[in-house]
Structure formats: structure tokens, C-alpha cells
């Protein structure tokens, strides 16, 4: 591909990754359905493996285009910023639907669940135990990712590496505690609308934490290999935005489901 052009836009090359990524995601979802119904996770493992491999190669190509070929100009980066803003906005509405479901069920409990909230037979989590610890972990990780971002803007790469490493560790720690909480849960996703609302909302948030941790881990590796400068680091900026979004969602989740809802 020729890098000589008289415009600031990025005309992308033909790539197999969008189509293959869609096929991998479809295989993964079909495997998930098969796992739920037949308790056989073979197709799910195949789909997940395909999706991870395609993500790696697609991300690799984008890094090459933006870092080594210089195709992510200021104009292109501005478009990527708007794309990330709109993506996070769509995620906000995604979580609003879960909170709507929770409050619809909790503010006017139906006769099927004993006209009380939490429903009869449900023992909710103590909000000042693991949930409070997870809240402190995510708030601390928000501080460390901001520290890393500001250090990068000030050309302090050592402190930026330290802050980003701490953020990734805290993200992994949060996921471990969330997994432990699920294992020790006194109710399941099948236990009334409370169980469904709780596990759907916290589960999807946990999935976003895993995605955000992966995003930040990739940024940590790129930072180690000097892919970012103090003025050109949108990949890191997008990861930080996403992480702050995850933080804010957790605060609403903790207050409404763990504290008020219990």
C-alpha cells in the first residue's frame, strides 16, 4: 500500500477480519446456547478460540496502521474518539435496560414473589462485605488509570507503567472476588426475578470488567514497547474512558442492587 496521499483520511485496505470475526462470534454464541441446553461446551470453546485469535490479528493490524504506518492522523483519531463516545453511550442504554428491569420488579413486587423485596426465600449479599471491597478496588483502579494517563501526558513513562500495571492487577483482583461471590451465592439465576436481575446485571458488568482489563493489558504491553507518545495515545485514552464507564456503572449497581435492593 502506498502511504503517499493528499488527504488526512484513512482508506482502509481489504481485510478478512470483520467477516471472520462475525463468524467467530456467531460460533461462540451458538456454542453458548448449546452449552446451556445440552451441557456440552465443545462448540463454545471452538468459537471462543476463533474469536480470540481474530481479535489478536485484527488488533495487530490496527496497531501497525496507526503506530508504524502513521495512518491514524489527527482527523482519523478525532473520528475514533467520536466512535468511542457513541459506543459508550450505547453501553449506557444497555445497562439502563437492566436497571429498569430491576426497579420495575422491586418497586412494585408481584404476588408471585410474595409482594415483598427481596422475594421470600432469597438471602441477599451483605453490602458491606465483598461488594464494598469491590467498590473500593474499582474506585482505586480509577485513580491509578488516571495517574497513568496524566503521567503519560507529562512524558513520565515509568510512572505511567506503574499506574497501568496497578490498574490491571486491581481489575484482575475484582474479577477473582466477583467469581468467588458467585460461587458462594446463596441463590441462583433461576431463583425468581431477583436472581435473574442480579446475575444478569452483575454478570454483564463483570464481562465489561474482563473486557476493560484486557483492553488495559494490551495498552500496558504497547506502552512497554513505546507505542505511545504524550500527544498520540488514543488507544490508551479509549481504554481509560471505558474503565471509568465501568467504574460509574458499578457505583450505580452497588447502590441500587447491593445496598438499596437488599
Automatic annotation (TrEMBL):
Q: How does it sit in the membrane?
A: Multi-pass membrane protein
What stretches pass through the bilayer? 39-59, 80-103, 130-149, 161-183, 203-225, 241-261
Q: A Pfam family for this UniProt protein?
A: COX3
User: Where would you find this protein in the cell?
Assistant: Membrane
Report the principal subcellular site: membrane
Keywords of this protein's UniProt record, alphabetized? Membrane, Mitochondrion, Translocase, Transmembrane, Transmembrane helix
Q: Which InterPro entries match?
A: Cyt_c/ubiquinol_Oxase_su3 (IPR024791), Cyt_c_oxase_su3_dom (IPR033945), Cyt_c_oxidase-like_su3 (IPR000298), Cyt_c_oxidase_su3-like_sf (IPR035973), Cyt_c_oxidase_su3_a-hlx (IPR013833)
Q: Name one GO biological process term.
A: mitochondrial electron transport, cytochrome c to oxygen
Assembly, per entry: Component of the cytochrome c oxidase (complex IV, CIV), a multisubunit enzyme composed of a catalytic core of 3 subunits and several supernumerary subunits. The complex exists as a monomer or a dimer and forms supercomplexes (SCs) in the inner mitochondrial membrane with ubiquinol-cytochrome c oxidoreductase (cytochrome b-c1 complex, complex III, CIII).
The UniProt entry, under PROSITE patterns, shows:
COX3 (PS50253)
* Gene3D superfamilies linked to this entry: 1.10.287.70, Cytochrome c oxidase, subunit III, four-helix bundle
- Give the residue range of the signal peptide: none
Q: Which GO terms describe its cellular component?
A: mitochondrion; organelle envelope; organelle membrane; respiratory chain complex IV
What functional role does this protein have? Component of the cytochrome c oxidase, the last enzyme in the mitochondrial electron transport chain which drives oxidative phosphorylation. The respiratory chain contains 3 multisubunit complexes succinate dehydrogenase (complex II, CII), ubiquinol-cytochrome c oxidoreductase (cytochrome b-c1 complex, complex III, CIII) and cytochrome c oxidase (complex IV, CIV), that cooperate to transfer electrons derived from NADH and succinate to molecular oxygen, creating an electrochemical gradient over the inner membrane that drives transmembrane transport and the ATP synthase.
Give GO terms: molecular function aspect only. Answer: cytochrome-c oxidase activity
Q: Which family does it belong to?
A: Belongs to the cytochrome c oxidase subunit 3 family.
Question: Source organism's superkingdom?
Answer: Eukaryota
Q: What is this protein called?
A: Cytochrome c oxidase subunit 3
Q: Domain Heme-copper oxidase subunit III family profile, which positions?
A: 5-262
Amino acid at each position: 500500500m502506498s502511504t503517499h496521499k493528499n488527504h488526512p483520511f484513512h482508506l482502509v485496505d481489504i481485510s478478512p477480519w470483520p467477516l471472520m470475526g462475525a463468524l467467530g462470534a456467531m460460533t461462540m454464541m451458538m456454542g453458548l446456547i448449546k452449552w446451556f441446553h445440552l451441557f456440552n461446551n465443545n462448540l463454545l470453546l471452538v468459537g471462543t478460540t476463533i474469536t480470540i485469535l481474530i481479535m489478536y490479528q485484527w488488533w495487530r493490524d490496527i496497531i501497525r496502521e496507526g503506530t508504524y504506518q502513521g495512518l491514524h492522523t489527527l482527523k482519523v483519531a478525532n473520528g475514533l474518539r467520536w466512535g468511542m463516545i457513541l459506543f459508550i453511550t450505547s453501553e449506557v442504554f444497555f445497562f439502563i435496560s437492566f436497571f429498569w428491569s430491576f426497579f420495575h420488579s422491586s418497586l412494585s413486587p408481584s404476588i408471585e414473589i410474595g409482594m415483598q423485596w427481596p422475594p421470600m426465600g432469597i438471602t441477599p449479599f451483605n453490602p458491606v462485605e465483598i461488594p464494598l471491597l469491590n467498590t473500593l478496588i474499582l474506585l482505586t483502579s480509577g485513580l491509578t488509570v488516571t495517574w497513568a494517563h496524566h503521567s503519560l501526558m507529562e512524558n513520565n513513562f515509568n510512572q505511567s507503567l506503574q499506574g497501568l500495571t496497578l490498574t490491571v492487577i486491581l481489575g484482575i483482583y475484582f474479577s477473582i472476588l466477583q467469581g468467588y461471590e458467585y460461587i458462594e451465592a446463596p441463590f441462583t439465576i433461576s431463583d425468581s426475578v431477583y436472581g435473574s436481575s442480579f446475575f444478569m446485571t452483575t454478570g454483564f458488568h463483570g464481562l465489561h470488567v474482563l473486557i476493560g482489563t484486557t483492553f488495559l493489558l494490551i495498552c500496558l504491553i504497547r506502552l512497554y514497547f513505546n507505542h505511545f507518545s504524550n500527544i498520540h495515545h488514543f488507544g490508551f485514552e479509549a481504554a481509560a474512558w471505558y474503565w471509568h464507564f465501568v467504574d460509574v456503572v458499578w457505583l450505580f449497581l452497588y447502590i441500587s442492587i447491593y445496598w438499596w435492593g437488599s
